[in-house]
Write a structure and sequence with these properties.
This protein is α/β, with parallel strands linked by helices and 224 residues long. The protein is built from 6 helices and 12 strands. The protein has 2 domains: 63 residues, Hypothetical PUA domain-like, domain 1 (Ribosomal Protein L25, Chain P, Beta Barrel), CATH 2.40.240; 145 residues, 3-Layer(aba) Sandwich (Alpha/beta knot), CATH 3.40.1280.10. Helices cover 28% and strands 28% of the residues. A hairpin with a 3-residue loop joins strand 5 and strand 6. The longest helix has 15 residues.
Length: 224
């Protein structure tokens, strides 16, 4: 069962909104049952339920332990707007691994168009719950690469051919990793970013590159 997000009120924990509806209706939680929740202060709580409704679930905290799942390095994944299955895979898997935030980029060679903000947020929320994270990574965009760079101080562009391997790039500490579409970044876009890095000699799909890139960057910063 996923770890639901809750807020603590003294010796009690309260779950509201979509999580409460999911517990009450989909999982058919009942009073007297125990569920596991996380609070934003970094604790994993075991809660014995004594009130269950579609808009509010609450109970008594019967056990707790410190829970620090968030990486110290805050790595943002800036991913080109991919076809829905690939983009949704990136959002889900990178949330599980520990992405700090996401930004969808309408790249020169992006095939997909449009925004699905509610859908993207829901995917990240579900993945964050399954991973036991303390919060849900926000998803911004789509925007052009130029728009993203205007608000990003530490971009690192992943490219197919680079003298620098991402594993050897330990700075900046909190980078924004730029992952292009299946056709790669255009020459114009590559010219906009000074720091570039690769993931080795093999060609990777964009969704694979996003997950591998995040893992490599976190490992290089000893932040997995």
């Amino acid at each position: 069962m996923p770890s639901f997000f809750a807020r603590r009120e003294g010796g009690r924990a309260v779950i509201v909104g979509g999580d409460a509806r999911h517990l009450a209706r989909s999982l058919r939680a009942r009073e007297g049952e125990e569920v596991e929740v996380v609070d934003p202060d970094g604790f994993l709580l075991t809660v014995r339920l004594d009130h269950v409704s579609a808009d509010r679930v609450e109970g008594v905290v019967v056990a707790e332990r410190e829970h620090r799942p968030e990486p110290q390095a805050h790595i943002t994944i800036a991913i080109a707007n991919l076809p829905a299955p690939a983009l949704e895979l990136v959002l889900s898997r990178c949330t599980e691994v520990g992405a700090f935030a996401f930004h969808v980029v309408q790249a020169d060679r992006s095939v997909a168009r449009g925004a699905k903000a509610d859908r993207w947020t829901a995917i990240c929320r579900e993945a964050a719950m399954l991973a036991g994270r303390l919060s849900v990574p926000p998803v911004a965009g789509p925007s052009t690469l130029e728009q993203l760079l205007s608000v990003t101080e530490q971009p690192v562009m992943l490219v197919r051919v680079s003298a620098t391997h991402l594993a050897d790039l330990r700075e900046p500490r909190d980078p924004t990793l730029l992952i292009g579409p299946e056709g790669g970044w255009s020459p114009r876009e590559e010219g906009l970013v000074a720091i570039k890095a690769g993931l080795g000699p093999r060609n990777l799909r964009a969704d694979t590159a996003a997950v591998v890139g995040l893992v490599v960057a976190l490992a290089a910063r000893r932040s997995l």
